[in-house]
Amino acid sequence: MPVITCIEDLRQLHKKNAPKAFYDYVDAGSYTESTYNANSSDLHALRLRQRVAVNVEHRSTEGTMLGQKVTMPTALAPVGLTGMQWADGEILAARAAEKFGVPFTLSTMSINSIEDVAEATTTPFWFQLYVMRDRDFITRLIHRAKAAKCSALVLTLDLQIIGQRHKDLKNGMTVPPKIMLSNVVDMMTKPAWGLRMLGAKRKVFGNIMGHVKGAEGIVSLSKWTASQFDPTLSWKDVEWVKKEFGGKLILKGIQDVEDAKLAVQSGADAIVVSNHGGRQLDGALSSIKALPPIVDAVGDKIEVWMDGGIRSGQDLLKALAHGAKGTMIGRAFNFGLGAMGEAGVTTALEIIQKEFDTSMALCGLHNPREITRDVILNPY
């Protein structure tokens, strides 16, 4: 086993362990991937203000997100097909998050179902929702999340139309994978992955299979899913979702100040400044550049979080310095999962926390509450 020192080490191990189609599903953006790359490069370009001769013996990375105490101000973001990176991946990631002390968000497009994750955990998790054309299915899905005692609903707003991801098309990325000679040959080189998947609890979309008429088989399920993303989504739908769920609502995919103001008016409890990991509108601003004006406009009215490009504790520090009250990580924990299963998710969280703690100390800080824009020498 190689020495793991950073998220990049986990990424390389994930790439080695998982079939190419599923690895590329995680580590890819839309079209030219300019926004996907900018999410990371714009964070890397920021410079930290180092301080010395400050007593930083007593420190804590703890914070809160929506009033929930967290080991550090980050949550595991919703990522589809997590259960294809490692067998029962959503269950393993949820367990790791629970033990570590950060929220886990289950995707609508997960392999393990809401009920699977609820059965395998002891603390409430969050559920991510796409508003689809079949409103009856969405109503039942919201009620299933309530029955599973999900403590918040994360409504993703930026997938009304799916951005084209070239790698997915070239790989024939479907669930289960499209039968292509390249996929078959590749999977034959991943015997450990295949053996684990044989014993997996589920191998298709657990939140959908068995819950939609006319989508009982693999082919019909794929066709139904592809036809369901709804370009008519509006703020009236947001209000309907909030009323139907009745609990805390987080709106994910905000990139514009005007949309942030509308989110506040909708009664949401938090917003996530996000460009869907660079997987939707290629050419959009990186999340870290979009964050400050949104914080300035609505940060005193609603919790503002950020995701996109966070793969280190320094990235987390920089996001908080630009006004975020919390962050979400998607690829970082999936790299850990694909590398080493549940232990890999824990390792990813430990790597980020350790670097976050060390970087705070070298900046003369004791806890996340002390982080301000003064920490950054060249802020956006």
Summarize this, please?
The model has no long low-confidence stretch (mean pLDDT 95).
Quick one: CATH class? Alpha Beta
State the shape. Answer: globular
Determine the CATH superfamily.
Answer: Aldolase class I
Number of domains: 1
Number of helices: 17
CATH topology: TIM Barrel
Ends distance: 40 Å
The helix/strand series, from N terminus to C terminus, equals: HHHEEEHHEHEHEHHHHHEHEHEHEHH
What integer value in Å does the Rg equal?
A: 20 Å
Question: What percent of residues are in strands?
Answer: 5-15%
| Overall CATH architecture | Alpha-Beta Barrel
The largest sheet, given as strand count, sense and whether it forms a barrel, is: 8 strands, parallel
Number of strands: 10
Strand order of the largest sheet: 3-10-9-8-7-6-5-4
- Helicity, as a percent range: 40-55%
**Secondary structural class:** alpha/beta
Mean pLDDT level: 95
Detail the poorly predicted runs.
none
